[in-house]
Structure formats: C-alpha cells, structure tokens
Amino acid sequence: MGARPADVVEAYLHHLAVERGSAVNTLRSYANDLRRYVDHLATASLDDLDAVREQDVAGFVAALRSGPQALAASSAARALAAVRGLHRFALRDGLVAADVAREVTPPALPSRLPKTLSVDEVEQLLAGCVGTGAGPIRDRALLELLYSTGARISEAVGVDIDDLDTAHRTVLLRGKGGKQRIVPVGRPALAAVDAYLVQARPALAAKGRGTPALFLNARGARLTRQSAWHALHGAADTAGLSAAVSPHTLRHCFATHLLAGGADVRVVQELLGHASVTTTQVYTHVTVDTLREVYATSHPRALR
Prior knowledge:
Layout: H1 5-18, H2 24-43, H3 54-64, H4 73-92, H5 119-127, H6 134-149, H7 153-157, E1 164-165, E2 170-174, E3 180-184, H8 187-199, H9 201-205, H10 225-239, H11 249-260, H12 265-272, H13 277-280, H14 282-298
Antiparallel strand pairs: 1-2, 2-3
Helix pairs in contact: 1-2, 2-4, 5-10, 6-8, 6-11, 11-14
C-alpha cells in the first residue's frame, strides 16, 4: 500500500494547523472538502494517492458541480484549492511522483457586479440615522465617513482621532496587509464627524477607560466591525433600503459614483487601496451599464 488518501489528508491538515497556523474556519472548510475528495477516490477504487491522475481530479470537480446537491462554482473552486494543496504537500513529502492537480482548472465563476445605490438612495440611507442620542449621531458620522472615503468597515472602525486631519481634510486608513493610505474627506463627512466629536463621543468616552479610537461603542471601547455593520443595516431599515445594502455598499457607491462623475480609474484604485487596477475595473462595468441605458433612451438612432 502506498500513500492512503485519508492518511495524507490527516498529515496535510496537521501541517496546515501546526506549521502554517491556518485559521480554525479554514481548517474546517479544508477538512470538509478533502473528506469529499477521499470519498470520491474511494468510489473510484483509488486507495493510493500516487495512482490518482489529472482526469480523476477533474472528475471530482465535475462531480461537485452535478447532481441534486451540486455546489456553487465558488464552493467547487474552494474545494479544488484544498485538493491542489493536498497534492502539492504530497509531492513535497515524496508521497507521490507528480502533482496531478496542478493543471486542473476551477469552474468559471459568474460575473457579479457590486450592489450600488443611486446618489438619492445614498442620501436616504444617510438620513436613516435618526435621533439626537449619541448612537445615531455616531452612526451618521460613521456612514458619512464610509461614503466619503470608500473605506472598508474594518478600516473605518480602525481610525483613531489623530488619523483625522481636519486642516487638510484627509484621513489615514489602515488596509489589508498593514498597508496605509491617506484619502480625502468631504465637507459633509467632516461636519458629521465634528458633530459626533462634540455632541456624542465625550459621553461615550466617559464610560470607557480611554482609547484613541474615533468611533466608540456604548461601553466607551472601540466600535467593532459587527456593530458598525448593524448601524449601517439599521439605517437601511429605516430608509427602506435594507434589501439593497451589504457591508461594502457604501464603498461600492463611492467607487461607482466617482467613476460616473469622470474620475480616472487609477485614481479610484488608489483611493480604494486596491493593489491592482483590474480589481477596480469591475466598477467601470456598472458605469457602462448606466451609460448604455441613458444612450438607449436618449439617442435618436438608438430609439429606432
């Protein structure tokens, strides 16, 4: 007997946990995907990983995408990533003669355009922060900052008071991988943040032990990402827009509205903190759709 698939999977998961320090959720997902893979190989009477060929791996991906319990393309792609990692690990440890999973292509993912709101709908959303208490005042400032800067929710709650430069109307954002960027802040957002700093933050800060965080929760500690999302969703509920809102909605609106207003895609890339302009270009598709709709309803030749 050579390399039993189940034994290699166990060794690989141990490698991910101990040597790579993978997150618990990642390990759980990989374990589930690789269990399916082991079952698939057993059905094909493949009890030695070195006997597996490229067509067997491709067959596993095809099987995931068929039948009454077919997986979505994204889930099948994730499972293939786990299988590829397994075969790379097996080759590295000399358990197999070749990496037969390397050339297997994942299923094509559907093109998904970001959910965006119109400018009027954004105004509705921002107006959804109603009330004179510390919470609504803070939430209005948070949402204004998200829309004004295109920040991720995690970046916004990570802002400290000293990161805000009111004189130059900029804010320092800390993005993925420890990368930092300075982005402009619009006057309405600055006004909302100033109102929060004067009317709400002192009362919230008095309940805590002192923190440099800009946005505080009811206990005086830094606002969490989950609480910020609840604030956004609460405003959307009030405005009747909850079905169209996700944690990234205001970030998507920021990018789409800038591009629709004529901003250069590379400038938007820098503002969003994207490493590649390709990531930003998905928003140009939304803009093109808008232009096409205007053209179809306005151009005399398009009406024929």
